[in-house]
Design a protein that fits this description.
This protein is an all-alpha fold. The protein is built from nine helices and no strands. The protein starts with 11 loop residues before the first helix and ends in a 19-residue tail after the last helix.
Length: 268
């Protein structure tokens, strides 16, 4: 297998395309040039740093360093979940629910793929474990954040209907069921849309990267199918756990709505 190796100088011309977008923003008064510049710088710094970190991890092949890197990835994912919420849960669950659900789902699905399909030697080899976890974690994070956001805002919006159902003797599950369904649909939708469009509308980054690296297209497709199945499983499991867990936190064992567990202030 051979691939065309790139130097940093080879990235200068493609980077000018981003500069062109900034110039268009200035010319059209879109006021996006600052955000574009910050996002570009952040992307470059993050990816270069991660390249050096992965080089160290691949050389070390240590279960401790692999587990530490995975733990840090989950922490950042839980922070992103909280940041994306218009209204956040109070207390320990502000970060705990998102972190717990992403760790449970992405960790379980990654372990499943390592132990049953890929079977690298050793099984915790960071070259396989961390990229897999990263792809599953990123998509699970999106599903969990969307599901929780729709759940909390739906409960606030449908407060009267929920409380009416509870007052008439309904259980908290019966009262929240319409909101929970909407939240689950929102959490699943990005993955479903991605699966429906893949191959016809878009070629995913991992598959494109493998083909550019010299892998046969059919083999790249097999890997991409494996990844998509893992992503769908991880996102579904994580979103379901987060939405059902959020529903329980927004009610109590006496079947009362607990809006006092939602922060009133909006995130910046």
């Amino acid at each position: 297998m051979s691939y065309i190796q790139l130097g940093y100088n080879d990235l200068i011309l493609p980077a000018l395309l981003v500069v062109m977008n900034g110039a268009l923003s200035l010319a059209l008064h879109l006021k996006l040039e600052r955000q574009l510049a910050l996002a570009s710088v952040r992307m470059v710094v993050q990816l270069v740093l991660v390249g050096y970190v992965l080089t160290f991890l691949f050389a070390a092949v240590s279960p401790f360093w692999t587990a530490l890197a995975a733990f840090i990835m989950v922490l950042f994912a839980s922070r992103e979940i909280v940041v994306r919420q218009k209204r956040r849960l109070l207390g320990l669950w502000t970060y705990g629910l998102g972190a717990g659900c992403t760790l449970l789902s992405a960790g379980t699905v990654t372990m499943f793929s390592l132990l049953t399909q890929l079977r690298p030697e050793p099984w915790y080899h960071p070259r396989y474990a961390l990229p897999l976890l990263g792809m599953i974690l990123g998509n699970t994070m999106t599903g969990v954040s969307l599901g929780l956001d729709v759940l909390v805002n739906g409960v606030m919006r449908e407060r009267a209907a929920v409380e009416s159902c509870l007052a008439l003797g309904g259980t908290r599950y019966q009262a929240l069921l319409p909101v929970i369904r909407d939240a689950l649909r929102s959490g699943f939708m990005p993955t479903i849309n991605g699966m429906a469009a893949i191959g016809l509308v878009s070629l995913p980054g991992m598959m494109t990267g493998q083909i550019l690296a010299g892998v046969e297209p059919v083999d790249a497709v097999k890997y991409q199918l494996l990844i998509m199945f893992l992503i769908a499983g991880g996102t579904g499991l994580g979103t379901l756990a987060a939405v059902l867990g959020g529903g329980r936190l927004l009610t109590d064992h006496r079947h009362r709505l607990r809006l006092d567990r939602i922060a009133s202030e909006k995130l910046p």
